[in-house]
Amino acid sequence: MSDRYDAGEHVPAGIDDRLRRIRDELEMVQSLVRSENEARITPAAIGRIIRSAREGIGGFFSADLFADPAFDMLLFVFLEEEAGRPVETSACYRASGVPRTTAVRWINMLVSNGMFESAPHPTDRRLALLSLSEETRTGVREWLNGLRPLIERLTVRDHPNVLD
After folding, report:
1. Is 110 helix (H, G, I), strand (E, B) or coil?
2. Radius of gyration of the chain (CA)
3. What is the helix, strand, coil percentage profile of the chain, to 5?
4. Long-range contacts of 115-121 (CB under 8 A, 24+ apart)
5. How many other β-carbons are positioned within 10 Å of the β-carbon of residue 8?
6. pTM (2 d.p.)
């Protein structure tokens, strides 16, 4: 007996309709699971995982060996904006993990490349507020969304706090 469906064989009445309903129900379940994962595994959640991993390496090796100020600042500003918090330049310096003068050079480069936008602080003229340009924000979000399949492989059962 074969597992293959052969149109020439006798098929009980209504089987095609039942198979279509099952297929449609499976597609609906897949869509619900995908929507749930998209809601649960946000770009910000993925960004927090990456940021935590970047910060954690300093516990095992000299952090300055792995300094990547542009990446660290980009991710920091994205996460702060996603949380609805304004980003002062001084916070960005600290997030970069490099000396202030190095951080200033990187911020200026990111501003001149159109990735960051700088605006005067509303109450403190010594500070500026940083934000991502719309194009950069979109790029970071798309990059993080592209990492979702990797994160989805981690099950909540195996790693219950991975997205917290």
Report:
1. helix
2. 24
3. 60, 5, 30
4. 115/74, 116/73, 116/77, 118/89, 121/88
5. 5
6. 0.71
